[in-house]
Design brief:
Elements lengths: L1 E2 L1 E4 L2 E8 L15 H29 L2 H14 L2 H14 L3 H17 L4 H22 L13 E5 L4 H5 L6 E6 L7 H8 L4 E3 L4 H4 L5 E5 L4 E4 L3 H20 L17 E6 L5 H6 L5 E5 L13 H15 L3 E5 L26 H7 L1 H15 L4 E6 L5 H20 L10 E5 L2 H5 L1 H4 L5 E4 L1 H9 L17 H17 L2 E4 L10 H7 L3 E4 L4 H9 L3 H11 L5 H16 L1
Parallel strand pairs: 3-4, 4-5, 5-6, 9-10, 9-16, 10-11, 11-12, 12-13, 13-14, 14-15, 15-16
Antiparallel strand pairs: 1-8, 2-6, 3-7, 7-8
């Protein structure tokens, strides 16, 4: 049995089909006629754009507009004059072949994206490498693997899957996906979930252990993968698959139901979104609001800063659609390197500990922060918008941001422009510093939202993307759990709402602990809402106190995870 990371829930049973793209060998060749070489590049670029648009249109018709946006993001990268201009300049100035120019320029951009703190933004690195290879293959006259032709009952096995490959999958024929690399928030994983294909990623040693035609069983919920399992195992998982599909159907009855525990404790189950269009999924899955609107995506894939008006329209759209339900919008969380060229940011030696988020915004008030805050305040007239400040480490940052908001309010009053007078201003608690002084922050913030991804990373001093130390990255580590419990306790003592918008908020093993700690709001991907609501209704907070006490008595993450896994399995059996 292999263990990887759960990427898309469900049980996959079928025959392994290994999908491998031949690795391209890109060499530097000097060219005499640079103009002809540039025209050659433009021809390949146009073909790649046409093919990408076809993928986007296909996804939109088969799956949905939201999923098609992933390929539309590729379109925006391919159409970015800064990217294409740098490739052309490299050909012209360095007198090199366009395959080599594409390699250098795209790798530079991919490395910049990879250095970002936000996991979703790091995905742009994969997108960039995807379009790089596709342009190069077009130039070299090489066909990409056509995954749409896989036979029925296939378990797709690959080192990694690019978004463009995943987009071509026919879910009628593919029973599951297993990859050696990848992450839960990758665009490939997002597409797998949208296509409702069970998927497990980050399975070490996978490619050496599987060959074409092997029987494979995978559990997309637990991350377990079996290669050539015994008949008894296959039978067990066939039964699990039947039960999974039955349970999935039953979740629909939780639409319109309150998120209330057996002993009457009400919580909010809301959604994380990245674009205004994502609100459609929130409504589809009966989300009780938005717990995190990542505004970074409004600033990406463009050549200039979004205007105040553009931002206003985006925030307004979400506020209106949710019709009074809370919409927590995080101010810009970006920086650390030259991630967005038009911003003119200097390279940061340590982007995770550097010039980013609130630090950048307070330093760039006029061109970045004020327009965003003004847009947020104006949009608040159309719904229940709340402003959330990321990466706060000291009280001064919160006070300065609040003072700026008050200054903008006064300007709007002078111009008789409407806004929500009592708009709430809260913080993301995602650093060790903020956790340690949560009691002080609770006196001045209107709400907390715990960002478990970064909180875990900073508490454990571990880069979650570094395979050599990734074993240390666990929200179940006692240090992280104590931090979470402390933050919630401080918030409740001060009488403010405490939410969570990290991956842990939808983790079945974490939900009982968070209920026992007193968390008010759980924010997650829209598709996870109904399952989380079902879980909440099955628990009594009073009864969970003993479970939490026991979990908090353990000294290691493994012990906590094992205990919580057994508890949840016992409840669900």
């Amino acid at each position: 049995m292999f263990k990887g990371t759960s990427a898309s829930a469900g049980i996959g049973i079928g025959k392994a089909v290994i999908v491998e793209e031949a690795e391209l060998v890109i060499t530097r060749n000097e060219v005499a006629d640079t103009e002809a070489e540039i025209q050659r590049f433009k021809g390949a670029l146009e073909k790649t754009i046409v093919a990408t648009q076809k993928m986007a249109d296909d996804l939109a018709s088969r799956v949905g507009e939201k999923e098609a946006e992933i390929m539309q993001g590729h379109m925006m990268l391919l159409s970015d004059p800064m990217l294409t201009g740098e490739i052309e300049n490299s050909v012209k100035n360095d007198k090199v072949n366009c395959e080599f120019a594409i390699e250098n320029v795209c790798n530079m951009y991919a490395d910049m994206f990879a250095s970002m703190g936000d996991e979703l933004m790091q995905q742009r690195a994969t997108d960039m490498r995807d379009i790089k290879v596709r342009m190069q293959r077009t130039l070299m006259g090489l066909e990409s693997v056509d995954v749409s032709l896989l036979p029925k009952g296939s378990i797709l096995v690959a080192k990694d899957l690019t978004p463009s490959m995943t987009a071509g999958i026919n879910p009628e024929n593919v029973s599951g996906i297993v990859t050696e690399l990848g992450g839960k928030t990758s665009h490939s994983a997002i597409l797998a979930r949208a296509l409702e294909i069970p998927a497990v990623v980050a399975v070490n040693g996978l490619m050496d252990a599987v060959k074409d035609g092997d029987s494979v069983v995978l559990d997309g919920s637990t991350g377990e993968v079996f290669v050539n399992p015994e008949a008894s195992v296959e039978k067990e998982y066939e039964e699990k698959r039947t039960q999974f599909l039955k349970d999935k159907k039953e979740l629909e009855k939780y639409i319109g139901q309150p998120s209330v525990t057996k002993d009457g404790v009400q919580v909010e189950i809301v959604a994380n979104i990245g674009k205004p269009e994502d609100v459609d999924k929130v409504l589809q899955y009966d989300g009780e609001g938005v717990g995190l609107f990542r505004t970074e995506f409004l600033f990406m894939d463009r050549t200039a800063m979004p205007t105040e008006e553009e931002q206003f329209e985006a925030y307004k759209k979400v506020a209106v659609a949710l019709n009074g339900k809370p919409v927590i919008i995080r101010t810009l969380d970006i920086g650390g390197d030259k991630e967005i060229p038009y911003m003119g940011l200097e390279k940061d030696e340590n982007p995770f500990l550097g010039y980013r988020a609130i630090r950048l915004c307070l330093d760039r008030k006029e061109d970045i922060y004020k327009p965003q805050l003004r847009a947020l305040l104006r949009a608040s007239a159309y719904g229940n918008i709340r402003i959330m400040i990321p990466l706060v480490t000291c009280i001064d940052e919160l006070r300065e941001a609040k003072a700026l908001i008050e200054e903008i309010k006064a300007e709007l009053d002078e111009k008789n422009i409407a806004y929500k007078k009592d708009i709430q201003v809260g913080i993301m608690v995602e650093t060790a510093a903020a956790s340690l002084i949560a009691d002080l922050f609770a006196k001045e913030a209107d709400f907390f939202s715990i960002g478990t991804n970064d909180l875990t990373q900073y508490t454990m001093s571990v880069d979650r993307g570094n395979k050599k130390v990734s074993y240390l990255y666990s929200t179940f580590n006692p240090a992280v759990l104590r931090s979470i419990r402390h933050i919630i306790s401080c918030g409740r003592e001060a009488g403010i709402m405490v939410g969570m918008c990290g991956e842990a908020a939808s983790d079945p093993m974490m939900i009982p602990l968070l209920l026992a700690f007193g968390l008010n709001e759980f924010s997650m991907s829209a598709s996870a809402i109904l399952r989380a609501r079902k879980m909440v209704t099955e628990y009594s907070v009073e009864e969970l106190q003993a479970v939490a006490d026991q979990a908090m008595s353990f000294a290691t993450a493994a012990e906590v995870e094992d205990y919580m896994r057994k508890f949840v399995e016992k409840i669900t059996d």
